[in-house]
Design a protein that fits this description.
Layout (H helix, E strand, L loop, with lengths): L1 E3 L6 E3 H7 L9 E4 L5 E3 L7 E3 L4 E5 L5 H14 L6 H18 L6 H16 L3 H26 L13 E4 L9 H5 L5 E2 L4 E2 L1 E2 L9 H5 L5 E4 L11 E2 L3
Antiparallel strand pairs: 1-6, 2-5, 3-4, 3-6, 7-11, 8-10, 9-12
Helix pairs in contact: 2-3, 2-5, 3-4, 3-5, 4-5
Bound molecules: iron/sulfur cluster (SF4) (2 copies).
The site of one iron/sulfur cluster (SF4) has 14 residues, from helix 7.
Length: 240
């Protein structure tokens, strides 16, 4: 979530800035300060005095995905400048494409080195400060959230389940009445079921379009991240 930084002294701690906007520092995974400050601060440095030049800060919680967060930040920094140099402008487009693939389950292990290479080049050679800040932001994110970021490329996993593409769709046994509305709504043939049977999603066919969720009158269709609800492999008679 974004917060405006108002009436802050030139030097302040992140803890004090968080408390000023009513956020508990212990609940935060990291803070991003907007351009021109353009830096992440991790919890073990929340007590450090920093030069405050940003007018806003973005606060991340444990459940926020830092790969999608970084993608958003790179895109925001790119939009701040009209510079069209190779390392900043072109580098940003490549970084956005690669990070976007990672968040869409399409990343590959080799992408991690490419991200680092593009960020290194932008930080050193981009013509504008926004481009160099973008490169530094990516390098800093790799240092602070490296494991979380690389999991998207090396394991095709989102550790926080914050990326929509990594979520799976499930039908809760306790709520399903076997009405069949979801089965009718699914255009991918990804739902198994018959009247008065608890319906089941075929994960191999599901495209996470959520049509079934919109169609279900019982709120029995849920999206799940790392923690999946227990569901039967095949339709079973409804008990309610
Ligand atoms: S999310 Fe879409 S594809 Fe998946 S089961 Fe529901 S309707 Fe079918
Ligand atoms: S999941 Fe919802 S829409 Fe589908 S059969 Fe069960 S109750 Fe009906």
């Amino acid at each position: 979530m974004d917060y405006a930084i108002e009436n802050a002294p030139e030097r302040e701690t992140t803890t004090a800035l968080l408390e000023a906007v009513g956020v508990e520092p212990v609940a935060c995974k990291a803070v991003w300060y907007g351009f021109p400050q353009a830096e992440f601060v991790a919890p073990d440095h929340f007590g450090d005095l920093i030069e405050v030049t940003a007018s806003s800060m973005r606060v991340f919680e444990e459940t926020d995905c830092m790969a999608s967060a970084l993608l958003e930040i790179v895109d925001e920094l790119r939009r701040l400048t009209e510079c069209t140099c190779t390392f900043g402008h072109e580098g940003a487009f490549q970084l956005i494409a690669i990070l976007g693939d990672g968040c869409q389950k399409k990343g590959s292990p080799a992408d991690v080195a490419l991200v680092r290479e593009l960020a290194d080049a932008a930080a050193a050679y981009a013509s504008c400060e926004e481009g160099r800040a973008m490169g530094r932001a990516v390098l800093q994110a790799l240092e602070l959230f490296g494991e979380e970021l690389t999991a998207h490329f090396e394991k095709r996993q989102c550790p926080t389940s914050g990326c929509a593409a990594f979520k799976t769709v499930h039908i809760l046994v306790s709520r399903c009445t076997g009405c069949g509305a979801c089965l009718e709504a699914c255009e991918d043939g990804a739902i198994m079921g018959k009247p008065r049977f608890v319906h089941v999603v075929d994960q191999g066919k599901c495209t996470q379009c959520k049509r079934c969720q919109e169609a279900c009158p019982e709120q029995a269709v849920v999206l799940a991240g790392a923690k999946k609800p227990k569901t039967p492999p095949r339709p079973i008679p409804v008990k309610r």
